[in-house]
Protein: Beta-galactosidase
Organism: Glycomyces buryatensis
Amino acid sequence: MTDIIPTVEGLAFGGDYNPEQWGRKVWDEDARLMGEAGVNLATVNVFSWARVNPGPGQWEFGQLDAIMDHLAANGVKADLATRPTDLNPFLDRLAIEPDFPDAPPGLELVRRSHEDGRSYLFAINHTETESRVPATGTDLLTGADWTAETPIPPGGIAVIHES
């Protein structure tokens, strides 16, 4: 594959493909069936990042390379993916602590700070109940003042320029 970002002609059609879960003996049959179904894009490596990076400084791309080469040889482009929980070992190794360890489940909070002191808090409420975001400033999406008592509604989004 020579393209850095390969394009898919027409509509991308496919799904998750995890051949590492059952072994190489079925790959040719998989490719034949994908061809019959018109599959042109496969999401790979969703569950296998620990195999690619089994430890600090250890990288083993052999199986992933073989999977991607096999797909490419059969006209199927690859889309790399991972589950969020697969990132935990990497984050643990980096000793990254969350900005908001006490945030309730389903409330996604990400802070971005600039060298000049500006700070922005991105908040997404993935729950079906309102939540509170521990920040003060201005919501850049609405222009409204934001306090720690301002509720973020179910499914709500806020981008807070913190003061």
